[in-house]
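Researcher: I've got a protein sequence and the SMILES for magnesium ion. Could you write out the 3D structure of the bound complex as structure tokens? I'd like something to compare against our soaking experiments later this week.
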Amino acid sequence: MSHHYIKFSNVSYTYPDATKALDDVSLMISHGERVALLGLNGSGKSTLLLQMNGLLLPSSGEVNVGDVPVTEKTASIVRRTVGMVFQNPDDMLFMPTVYDDVAFGPRNMQLPENEVARRVENSLSAVGLENQAGKASFQLSGGQRRCAAVASVLSMEPDILVLDEPSANLDPLARRNLLRILSSFTHTIVLATHDFELAKKLCPRSILLEEGKVIADGETEKVIEIFENKIL
Ligand SMILES: Nc1ncnc2c1ncn2[C@@H]1O[C@H](COP(=O)(O)OP(=O)(O)OP(=O)(O)O)[C@@H](O)[C@H]1O
Ligand SMILES: [Mg+2]
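Model: Sure. Here is the predicted complex with magnesium ion in place.
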């Protein structure tokens, strides 16, 4: 994949129970941009993020990551480019130890074990969990589990980082730490969040969703103002 942009062309998505969650979404995110996805509960943020690595495929329209259209066939290639941190960290942590959880992606990429170890150590220390590697994820606090989930994606060294509510449940210190980690990530970041401060500090651009439609896309301060005017 030469150029890691993300492009949505007229994407609609309806869940099997007939809930229409995305309605004709078109957007373009260039390589290196940091974009926050804002909107009320149920507005379609998670559904939109899940289209970025083929976990959900459009009911109509097309998603492209670089020059690759995201389809069932290309999803595994796309996932090497797009690292996704889910809304619920427990969906990502299933190995006996935190170390193995963070090693899972690199091992799956068939990297040699010394490279796996280097990546796991770097990723765990980036999120401040270097001393928890031997624990099981259920022995961590909620915030620590979120950090472990972030580490399990950083270890794959993705070109695009997609995060669903990354600052939920984090204490102020862990939140600041997360901001530091994400700020030092030089590639594309797309995150869904209700944390306006995080959006303002990290993302120059925001996209506002309402009932599955993009209703604003632009400078974060301005988009937040539009959002606040709508809900207050
Ligand atoms: N598995 C599912 N089956 C049916 N409908 C779903 C499913 N998951 C989500 N939905 C519906 O799709 C719409 C969008 O949900 P989504 O989870 O994308 O919202 P969200 O913006 O991420 O919300 P939140 O801020 O609460 O995380 C909602 O109406 C939701 O009820
Ligand atoms: Mg969500």
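Model: DSSP finds eight helices and ten strands in the chain. Residues 163 and 191 are 5 Å apart (CA to CA).
Researcher: Great, I'll pass this along to the crystallography team.
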